[in-house]
Write a structure and sequence with these properties.
By secondary structure, the chain is mostly beta strands. It has two domains: 1-191, no CATH class; 195-292, no CATH class. The protein is 2% helix and 39% strand. It has one helix spanning 281-287; strands spanning 5-15, 50-60, 64-69, 75-81, 86-87, 94-95, 98-101, 104-106, 111-114, 129-134, 140-147, 154-161, 169-175, 187-190, 199-201, 204-209, 215-217, 239-244, 248-253, 258-263. Strand 3 and strand 4 (75-81) form a beta hairpin. The longest helix is centred in the last third of the chain and has 7 residues, at 281-287.
Length: 292
């Protein structure tokens, strides 16, 4: 049994760099977030990319190689599957922010960790604290943490690999240092390439679309679309699952006979959500890597 390797590395990526943040406090609503002060608005992005070298932390066993980029909010940038020679999650070849995040700039790909606000966290493209840990059983971890400057709540996510185990363990810790209870969201945004024939495995009774919050029986949209099959989606869709039936959520790619599954006790972690850009013109634009 080989010990899991954990180490620092360097990674160079084509990057459309973010310009200077707005010096004025932004106190109005932006992408559904009523107020993200003291974070500044970041809505200036370079027109052309440059090569940027990023510090990376890597975690590696016989099956996977994980890469975390602290400068991109501590995002899990990639997870390489050594058996298939492919990436488990979408590895974006460029860093090109789009105006999707709570404070503007946001990038797709890998897994992004969000807490405690609704939406992509305001610090999603700020440098996140990242450290490593090794254990006596031969396993090792990458740990990403961040403090929310609006509420002063803090989260940490530990990604742990074990020798001879073909799964990633995610250990999430949430902290509220205040002397009062507070509400929060925690969600991890994982990205997958939308390949032909992709099938969603979504064991819920009902779902709600974010734009109207009408409860509908899964998997059918009001016009009869079967939301389990990504090819049938004619517009972007983002169904929140309601009344989960199983501990998992996942997807299956019949072309490669492979898939990804997330497992968590649905009694403790009842929330589930999927998102697809669909087949509309706006969605097709998002599929172009240079758009990201």
């Amino acid at each position: 049994m080989k010990e899991v390797k954990v180490y620092a590395d360097r990674l160079t990526l084509k990057t459309y760099e973010i310009g200077e943040a707005d010096p004025n406090p932004f106190l109005a609503e932006y992408v559904g977030m009523p107020n993200f002060y003291p974070y500044p608005l970041k809505n200036k992005v370079a027109d052309k990319p440059t090569d940027v070298e990023y510090k990376a932390y890597c975690l590696e066993n016989e099956y996977f190689k994980l890469t975390v980029l602290p400068a991109l909010g501590g995002k899990l940038y990639s997870c390489y599957d050594k058996r298939s020679g492919t990436d488990l999650f979408y590895r974006n070849p460029v860093v090109k922010p789009q105006m999707v995040g709570t404070t503007g700039a946001w990038t797709s790909g890998g897994i992004e960790f969000n807490f405690p606000n609704r939406g992509h966290r305001p610090s999603a493209l700020d440098r996140a604290d990242t450290t490593t840990r090794s254990y006596e059983d031969g396993s090792a971890s990458l740990i990403v943490s961040d403090v929310d400057r609006i509420s002063w709540q803090r989260f940490s996510v530990e990604l742990r690999l074990y020798p001879s185990k073909a799964y990633i363990e995610q250990i999430t810790r949430l902290y509220n240092p205040n002397d009062y209870d507070d509400s929060y969201y925690f969600w991890a945004t994982s990205s997958e390439l939308e390949t032909p024939g992709l099938v969603w495995r979504y064991p819920v009774l009902w779902y709600l679309e974010e734009d109207d919050w009408i409860r509908r029986p899964w998997p059918y949209f009001h016009d009869g679309q079967d939301l389990r099959y990504n090819d049938t989606l004619r517009q972007f869709t983002l169904p929140f699952g309601s009344e989960a039936l199983k501990d998992y959520i996942g997807l299956y790619d019949p072309a490669s006979d492979s898939g990804v599954v997330h497992i968590a006790d649905y009694g403790q972690v009842p929330g589930k959500k999927i998102w697809s850009w669909g087949d509309a013109v706006a969605g097709k634009h998002r599929h172009c890597p240079s758009a990201f």
